[in-house]
Design goal:
Blueprint (H helix, E strand, L loop, with lengths): L9 H5 L2 H9 L3 E6 L5 H16 L4 E6 L2 H16 L16 E3 L21 E4 L4 E6 L13 E5 L6 H8 L11 H4 L7 E6 L21 H23 L3 H21 L1 E6 L5 H4 L1 H10 L2 H7 L18 H4 E2 L5 H4 L24 E6 L4 E9 L4 E10 L5 H11 L7 E6 L15 H10 L4 E4 L9 H13 L7 E5 L4 H7 L17 H4 L11 H14 L20
Parallel strand pairs: 1-7, 1-8, 2-5, 2-6, 6-7, 9-15, 10-13, 12-15, 13-14
Antiparallel strand pairs: 3-4, 4-5, 10-11, 11-12
Length: 564
């Protein structure tokens, strides 16, 4: 049994260094740039939400992300999961219906009424003391127009353009000093922000605007806050334990106002790597991450430094900002959603999906099998890649067909054109009488789809041919040639993997480096290997081969080449 002096504090037991600093410092503006696995949302944002709500009853704060889809499917469930978690004594932290409600218009009788009418109850978490936490999407900033809020929580800031946040969201963080507002203004958290993110990769179009807050940090003020906070915390513990009561009361009365004053004017910026959580994650986690990620990806995702380079790209004219789109969703539908609902995106939510048009599929068969779904969009002469799907053992072709059918169940025209590579026409040992392409066709047709195989009898297509076609398509300097556009929200692994498609150094003609498919564990290949881009490449070649700028092949010249 440890002696009393040897027993670690609650912070040491339940929080890593970054989480502990968030609790101790708790100043007006706090920005954390932290690697994956550091508990940014559950252990920094969620506890801070409770402190803001507790300190400013009946007021309104906001929690923001780039889109409602991200908020509804990732952020809010994580925050609510923290609220429902157990405390050290085995009790639930908060009880829904008693301490807070989610998406409710009619509040329980014991709840205090918020200071202002709740304009969007379906997107709000309301606490018993009347504090409202409203979900706000940066791409739908009109939902906060004209409002006044006391604090802003910003999740995964790298996905939100800084200029949009500064002009659309942050100006709403204000309240009147007249009436009840005069008391609110005294709180050190009033008018503040709490932001969390891992470091953005500029080459992927991510925005590191939030790093500017590092210049606002006054180190001496932060040191003073830590000293005073720990001193007052010790006094509060004494009061709780019934010791040194008068001395502790005097200490709190003397120093708490000064602590609040310094916190009110201060900004704290901290950049930490995933190693801050090494005791919880264990050494094996970092060893696995290092083995499966490239050096640049490890530095950005785990170490919170660096950026992914564009050197030697197979798709060398690829530009994410130019060739992807983010206005994916029909907000006439999204805007009606409530936090109370179980939310699942399908094709009916997609702005560029036409239910009456056939669906174009690119298919890369194999142990790791991938499919991209697309439609041609006549208004801007583009091919829109709408959705990615992938499976790996023990899942198989039947599973990817099921995923596709579930997502596109709203389609009125049940017609599919299926494009694939030459390997899709080969018979396999597992299905001796079938080919991968015919098996995919059969599985889709079980759901009532009519599938046309577009590559029967197809010969070799070489890497250099794909490379040349893609150069012409991505250049976009010919009006008649279709534009390729990828949905960045619904195809995140495809977008990421485009940067993992490299040319074999020194290859002539050009070849695609497929070695990542052997190096990366199969369950992690989606965004780190050329697998999903290959599915898209088969689709693009099948549809737009006529734009290929050159001879069909080099075989007459006696050159031996690899094919995809």
């Amino acid at each position: 049994m440890k002696s009393k002096a040897e027993i670690p504090s609650a912070l040491e037991i339940y929080q890593n260094t970054a989480q502990a600093l968030a609790t101790i410092i708790d100043c007006n503006k706090m920005i954390f740039t932290a690697g994956r696995g550091t508990g940014k949302t559950t252990e920094i944002t969620a506890p801070r939400i409770l402190r803001v709500a507790g300190a400013m009853p009946r007021e309104t704060s906001i929690i923001s992300h780039s889109s409602y889809v991200a908020l509804f499917t990732n952020v809010i469930p994580a925050v609510l999961g923290k609220f429902r978690s157990e405390t050290a004594d085995g009790r639930q932290m908060l009880t829904e219906g008693f301490d807070y409600v989610v998406g409710e218009k009619d509040l329980p009788r014991h709840f205090k009424q918020p200071r202002f009418p709740v304009l969007w109850p379906e997107r709000s978490i309301i606490f018993a003391n009347g504090h409202v936490l409203q979900a706000v999407a940066v791409d739908r900033a009109d939902s906060i127009a004209g409002q006044s809020v006391v604090h802003g929580f910003f999740e995964e800031m790298k996905h939100s353009k800084g200029e949009k946040l500064k002009t659309r969201i942050i100006p709403a963080i204000r309240t009147s000093r007249i009436g009840n507002g005069s008391e609110v203004h005294k709180c050190h958290l009033h008018g503040g922000i709490t932001g969390v993110s891992d470091i953005g990769r500029v080459s992927l179009g991510e925005d590191n605007w939030f790093t500017e807050y590092e210049k606002e940090v006054n180190s001496q003020d932060i040191e003073d806050i830590i000293t005073l906070s720990l001193y007052i915390n010790k006094a509060q513990i004494n009061l709780q334990n019934g010791v040194k009561i008068t001395q502790s009361q005097n200490a709190i009365a003397k120093w708490a106002p000064l602590l609040a004053k310094i916190r009110k004017k201060s900004t704290f910026y901290l950049r930490v790597s995933t190693f801050v959580n090494r005791e919880v994650l264990g050494l094996d986690y970092f060893r696995t991450q290092r083995e499966m990620l490239t050096a640049s990806e490890f530095l950005s995702s785990i170490c919170s430094i660096g950026d992914r380079n564009r050197e030697n790209l197979f798709f060398e004219l690829w530009e994410e900002e130019k060739h992807t789109f983010e206005d994916s969703y029909k907000y006439t539908i999204i805007d009606k959603l409530s936090l109370k609902e179980t939310f699942r995106i399908d094709a009916s939510h997609l702005q560029y999906f036409t239910p009456s048009d056939k669906i174009l599929l690119g298919y890369d068969p194999g142990a790791f099998a991938s499919v991209v779904a697309a439609q041609e969009y006549g208004k801007d002469n583009s091919l829109r890649i709408l959705k990615e799907f992938f499976v790996y053992p023990p899942m198989d072709i039947a599973d990817i067909a099921q995923q596709f059918n579930a997502f596109f169940s709203c389609a009125k025209t049940r017609q599919i054109d299926l494009y694939y590579d030459r390997a899709g026409n080969k018979k396999t040992a597992k299905r001796e009488a079938e080919t991968d392409a015919r098996q995919m066709k059969a599985e889709l047709e079980k759901f009532g789809w009519r599938v046309t195989l577009k590559n029967l009898g197809q010969g070799d297509i070489y890497y250099w041919q794909h490379y040349q076609l893609w150069k012409r398509l991505l250049a976009e300097n010919e009006r008649s040639i279709p534009r390729i556009r990828i949905d960045a929200n619904e195809c995140p692994n495809l977008v990421s993997a485009m940067y993992c498609c490299k040319k074999v150094p020194g290859s002539s003609p050009i070849e695609l480096d497929k070695s990542p498919e052997k190096k990366v564990p199969i369950n992690l290949q989606a965004g780190l290997t050329p697998q999903i881009p290959s599915a898209m490449t088969y689709l693009v070649w099948g549809m737009y081969e006529k734009y290929f700028p050159g001879l069909r092949n080099y075989q007459n010249a006696g050159v031996v080449l690899g094919s995809i």
